[in-house]
Design goal:
Elements lengths: L11 E5 L4 H16 L3 E7 H10 L2 H5 L5 E6 L13 H24 L6 E5 L4 H9 L3 E5 L3 H15 L39 H13 L4 E4 L3 H12 L5 E3 L3 H11 L18 H7 L6 E5 L8 H13 L3 E5 L13 H11 L4 E4 L4 H5 L4 E6 L3 H10 L3 E3 L6 H11 L3 E3 L6 H14 L1 H18 L5 H17 L1
Parallel strand pairs: 1-2, 1-4, 2-3, 4-5, 5-6, 6-7, 8-9, 8-11, 9-10, 11-12, 12-13
Helix pairs in contact: 1-9, 4-5, 6-7, 6-8, 11-16, 16-17
Bound molecules: uridine-5'-diphosphate-xylopyranose.
The site of uridine-5'-diphosphate-xylopyranose has 26 residues, from α1, α13 and α14.
Organism: Hibiscus sabdariffa
EC number: 2.4.1.-
Pfam family, one: UDPGT
């Protein structure tokens, strides 16, 4: 690669996320943080998501303020009319996505000008390491899921070898994940570990890609020492150079403020249209009286389950704000989806409000919100922690099972409802967080929020780790 540029030129970093909302969120925010430090950024989005972002956001205007910030697109290997719902990414990864995208990435890197000094690749896209090695470009892996998730994925071969997988008893403690011996049950292992056979292609894919991430020049994790210190120490035994520089959304807000920019003026990067009307509805509710209910960007649910959640909410003593994403309902039940949503809306007018997609950060920071019934996706978990909102966790897949265990047993800022979908349980849990144990949870969540927010301020661990990343990339350029 031609590198005969002036040493005064800013480093050029190519950032490449998996084409999923939760991954784009944190990687585009990291890109903005690097752009604030003066870096030239090329953000590589799938064609499909790029089109959606262009339609739904002010992307071009927002990033025009950063000289050299460019978007490029890459194929995700699937035809335009593919529904891309549920776990479509992993299901198509080996056969379609990896081979097609790898070739396309190579072509992009060979033709890009100025040449790229460093790739920040999604830690799940192991092939980026091969391409980087081939072209002589350093690769830093960014694992957007939780460190708990990462460490359990990394330990899967050891768990299998110890005979603790396949699962025999869901409530048995797992002994082979260092650092988690006292609280990790089979039930808390990533959903993929529930496969009856460990030759399952998704199990193999997950642990292969995780082990590959540790071969990168370094690893970026969206967390802080204060939140995940013990697990980070374990991960460091496999990968010495870790940048724990999160929560990235809080870090970005802090750095925008320091530059006298409105922290709310960051790019919303949302793949669905945000319905701002829920903020006006929240404005009319009393402080900490509303439970916010959202299951992220991938979770799907049967109509029966959604109805159980809804009854639980309606029968509880709280008001609620419920997100029902388009394509959220699955299977035969998804017939007449709009009717179901309309019916729920009608019946819940006095108790709640329903939208298809919410401005989640603003919602969680609204004074009317006192709890979050969540699927425990890592971004949602961090957003709730930073806002000091206690959680009720109802994990769906991937790292969410272990995240919800950490929320309830390690950080003690919420309850874990995993594997149960019953209106009585939903009602009971909502009442616990919103009424019976309200002060206790509010206090622990507020303490945690304070600690985590300090880490992104000047002198805090995450702030220093981000500065170190910036310096290290600058050195790659020289
Ligand atoms: C999944 C995993 O669970 C997660 O742990 C992994 O790191 C990425 O893939 P996802 O279902 O997308 O994530 O959940 P989450 O990580 O919580 O991300 C969802 C994002 O969408 C959050 O940043 C949230 O603020 C945003 N969101 C969600 C909205 O903006 N509006 C909504 O109505 C719902």
């Amino acid at each position: 690669m031609d590198k005969d540029r002036s040493s005064q030129a800013p480093p050029h970093v190519l950032v490449f996320p998996i084409p999923l909302q939760g991954h784009i969120n944190s990687m585009i925010k990291l890109s903005e943080l690097l752009a604030l430090a003066g870096f030239r950024i090329t953000f590589l989005n799938s064609d499909h998501n790029h089109e959606r972002l262009v339609k739904l956001t002010d992307m071009a205007t927002h990033f025009a303020r950063y000289p050299g910030f460019e978007f490029k697109t890459i194929t995700d290997g699937l035809p335009p009319d593919h529904p891309r719902t549920g776990n479509w990414f992993m299901e198509n990864y080996v056969e379609v996505i990896e081979p097609k995208t790898k070739q396309n990435l190579r072509e992009i890197l060979l033709n890009i000008s100025p040449p790229v000094d460093c790739i920040i690749g999604d830690g799940f896209l192991g092939f980026v390491l091969d391409v980087g090695k081939d072209l002589g470009i350093p690769v830093i892996c960014f694992r957007t899921s939780s460190p708990h998730g990462f460490w359990v994925y990394h330990s899967i071969p050891d768990i299998i070898q110890a005979g603790e997988l396949p699962i025999k008893d869901m409530d048995r403690l797992i002994t082979t994940v260092p650092g988690m011996e006292t609280y990790l049950r089979c039930r808390d292992l990533p959903s993929f570990c529930r496969a009856p056979d460990m030759e399952d292609p998704i199990v193999k894919l997950v642990f292969k890609e995780t082990r590959r991430s540790t071969q990168a020049n370094a690893l970026i994790l969206n967390t802080t020492e204060e939140l995940d210190g013990p697990i980070l120490s374990q991960i460091r035994t496999k990968c010495r150079n870790i940048y724990a520089l999160g929560p990235i959304h809080a870090q970005l807000n802090t750095r925008l403020k320091a530059k006298h920019r409105d922290p709310h003026d960051h790019f919303s990067n949302t793949l669905w249209k945000e319905d701002e009307s829920c903020i006006s509805w929240l404005d009319q509710q009393s402080n900490r009286s509303v439970i916010y209910v959202s299951f992220g960007s991938i979770t799907t649910m049967s109509r029966d389950k959604l109805v159980e959640v809804w009854y639980g909410l309606v029968n509880s003593k709280a008001k609620f704000l419920l997100v029902v994403r388009p394509n959220f309902m699955t299977g035969e039940d998804s017939e007449g989806e709009d009717d179901v949503v309309r019916e729920l809306l009608e019946k819940t007018k006095d108790r709640g409000y329903t939208v298809q997609w919410a401005p989640q950060e603003a919602v969680l920071n609204h004074p009317a919100v006192g709890g979050f019934l969540t699927h425990s996706g890592w971004n949602s978990t961090l957003e709730s922690i930073v806002a000091g909102v206690p959680m009720i966790c109802w994990p769906y897949f991937a790292d969410q099972q272990v995240n919800s265990r950490a929320v309830s047993e390690v950080w003690k800022i919420g309850l874990d409802m995993k594997d149960v979908c019953d209106r009585k349980v939903v009602e009971k849990m909502v009442n616990k967080v919103m009424v019976d144990r309200k002060e206790e949870f509010a206090k622990s969540a507020a303490e945690m929020a304070k600690l985590i927010n300090q880490s992104v301020n000047e002198g805090g661990s995450s702030c220093s780790n981000l500065d170190r990343l910036i310096e290290d990339i600058r050195e790659m350029r020289l």
